[in-house]
Amino acid sequence: MKRLRILWSAITLIVALMISGVTPLAAAPFSGRTNFVDSRFAAVWSRTDSESVRGGRTWYWGPGPWFDYAEFYHDSPNGTRTVQYFDKARMEINNPTDGIVTNGLLVKELISGRMQLGDNPFDVNYYEGSDVPVAGNPRVANTIAPGYRDFAGIATIDNGYRDPPRLDQRVNSAIARGGNLSLRNDLALPETTIVQYNSVTGHNIPRVFWDFMTMRGRVVENGRVVTAPIVDWLFAMGYPITDPHWTRAVVGDTERDVLVQLFERRVLTYTPSNPAGYQVEMGNVGQHYFQWRYPHLGAPWVAPDPVTPLIYASNIDTGSHWELYRATFNGGGQRLTFNNAETVAFSWRRSWDPSQFFLIVDSRRNSPQYRQIYALNATAADAGEQAPGASVVRISYSAGDGMYPPPDNDYSEIPGNEYNAMISPDGNLMAFVSERQGIPQLYLRRLQFPLRGYAQPITAYTERCSVETPTWSPDGRNLFWVANCSGNFEIYRADVRQFYFDPVFLSADLINSTNLSNHPANDRFARVSPDGRLIAFASDRDGNWEIYVMNADGSNARRLTNHPATDDSPTWSPDSSRLAFASDRDGDFEIYILNVGDGTVTQQVTQNTAQDRWPLWAQ
Predict the structure, then answer these.
(1) Are 339 and 267 in the same domain?
(2) Is residue 258 part of a domain?
(3) Which has the minimum average pLDDT: 120-129, 280-289, 450-459, 608-617?
(4) Which of 374, 381, 388 minimizes the C-alpha distance to 430?
(5) Is residue 141 part of a domain?
(6) Which contacts qualify for 98-106: CB closer than 8 Å, 24 or more apart?
(7) Do 286 and 318 share a structural domain?
(8) Between 75 and 403, whose confidence is greater?
(9) Does 246 lie in the same domain as 313?
(10) What are the tens digits of pLDDT across the range 417-433?
(11) Domain shared by 20 and 118, yes or no
(12) Same domain membership, residue 362 and residue 262
């Protein structure tokens, strides 16, 4: 209930902002994710689910959104479309110019395992159908309910399957996990009498579902509350692709009989034991599809947001090379890595599942002459790599050290450094710098554990430029980085244009590249804020290295620090209000925190005689 109250407060504010004409904060996977990413999504949601009209009836979308992103779709600009997930479904805008909101044939994809990637029906990726239960608790607490793939033999999924008309008959068919059918004559209730037969797909609809699909009630239209059909069922649900069937499912802590029927976009459930107003419900298709498409991200609709601690590198225990520490905010830190060569943190692969939460680092642990990229399980890293069960996964292979065989199709031409790996906010892609062709270039690859596929260069520098610190926009549409090809470091931004995406490979390039800083001084260590509004960077444009921010389009650069020492390597707090940075203002490098609003340094995080550098917070 606490989560619902928080969501309702956020949603009420958003709707009020929309009515007043004020633009709400941008949404993003890990910053403001319960805001609507597009006002057209908010309008569709508010029609049926806003507090002013819903009353005591069930949700049609859910209490509010909880994840948004720019997902790959061939026929959208640059190969990505805006999507936002709700408990019951996903909203999407394929073409921003027409602004039409749809909610996808998610159920067909879950049953068939064919993920639609474009308008062409044959433009698909092939996966296993989903074993997520169609009703009840998640699989770990609901072993008896059938999953989506269990309906493959009795569903219309481009296979010509049809059921015969059964008008005036009561539903007594049952399906179990594994797809086994049986009869439950004890459940042939009057309200399950078949009253409609859809001749397009060939399936029967019982009275209890048809009444729900055609129900009239209070809705919001053109800013006014009116009485009308609550949904256009064809828009909201699509055609039925199965007949109704009874299932057994664990709901909460109770095993129950649940009638289910699968439509192209939604699932309808009928639980006779539920209270009035909640006996017929939309299934949690948005949750179910998210688990299938993003198995590495966990369950953001129920899990607390992942906490990214402040990490930094120090030589306090080695006297020479960098090791990683977690800031304890009492002048020191907890040591996380134990090696004979340097390790420096650069980014996170975040997840609402702690077992899938990884710290991405540059390290020379296996090849002292070359930097390579590794992923450290964040839970194991909390106790240090020497702890039992600590997980360290190598995710770059250009060093030629012979210690780890590279994955298929990822052999490097020239041994060299690979470093500064930045994981896309959805956890699927890794942008990094590699010297595998001799000249440093930005590369992009699919990120999976274990690593498979190949890395693709996305820059084409023809001279030996210095290239560093790629960073993603929160929606994954843009990439920012720093390069020095002509004598000074500049900050660049480009659009990521995707051509192909599957479980192992991708094809993409960068277009519309722009020099954002465009200054004769050096501008380095660029990091985009979690809310996507600002870029923090270090610059020597005023005579020494100071911390600056500018808008994400390169405008309105302003200096935050003003100290004769060196201030550099800023990193954002999760709420985009603060920066941690390194400075030698007390005679050696320490980690400090400042407020972005006024540049006030509020805390010195470390205090010792060692060198503490390269902080990482929420990137």
Answers:
(1) no
(2) yes
(3) 450-459
(4) 374
(5) yes
(6) 99/40, 101/40, 101/41, 101/44, 103/236, 103/265, 104/265, 105/238, 105/264, 105/265, 106/265, 106/285, 106/286, 106/288, 106/289
(7) no
(8) 75
(9) no
(10) 999 999 999 999 999 99
(11) yes
(12) no
DSSP 382: H
> Among the listed ranges 15-19, 236-240, 341-345, which one has the minimum average pLDDT value?
15-19
Q: Judge if 357 and 384 occupy the same domain.
A: yes
CA distance 95 to 313: 44
Contacts 24+ apart (CB under 8 A), 19-26: 19/223, 25/531, 26/474, 26/531, 26/532, 26/533
Residue 185 has pLDDT above 50, yes or no: yes
Specify if 231 maps to a domain.
Answer: yes
Domain that holds residue 322: 306-394
pLDDT of res. 236 = 93
Regarding beta strands 323-327 and 456-457, do their DSSP bridges make them parallel or antiparallel, or are they unpaired? unpaired
Q: Please write the tens of the pLDDT for every residue from 298-317.
A: 999 999 998 999 999 999 99
For the chain, the average pLDDT equals: 90
Arithmetic mean of pLDDT, 396-405: 59
User: Which of residues 370, 394, 418 is at a domain's end?
Assistant: 394
The answer to whether residue 369 scores a pLDDT higher than 90 is no
* Residues written for the chain: 619
Per-residue pLDDT at 124 exceeds 80: yes
Question: Does residue 221 sit in the same domain as residue 328?
Answer: no
Instruction: Compute CA distances 338 → 314, 349, 402, whole Å.
Output: 12, 21, 22
Residue 240 DSSP one-character state: B
Query: How far apart are alpha carbons 428 and 433 in whole angstroms?
Result: 17
Q: Is residue 250 part of a domain?
A: yes
- Tens of pLDDT, residues 95-117: 999 989 999 999 999 999 999 99
Domain count, the chain: 2
Give pairs for 394-397: CB < 8 Å, separation 24+.
394/366, 394/451, 395/360, 395/421, 395/430, 395/447, 395/451, 396/372, 396/421, 396/432, 396/434, 397/372, 397/451
Say how far apart CA 329 and CA 339 lie, in whole Å: 24
On the question of pLDDT at 383 being above 60, the answer is no
- Co-location of 368 and 220 in the same domain: no
CA distances in angstroms from 186 to 173, 182, 274, listed in the order given: 10, 12, 18
Of 271, 293, 315, the last residue of a domain is 293
Strand order in the sheet with 267-270: 181-183, 173-175, 245-251, 254-262, 267-270, 280-282
Q: Which tokens go with 113? A: 């395992």
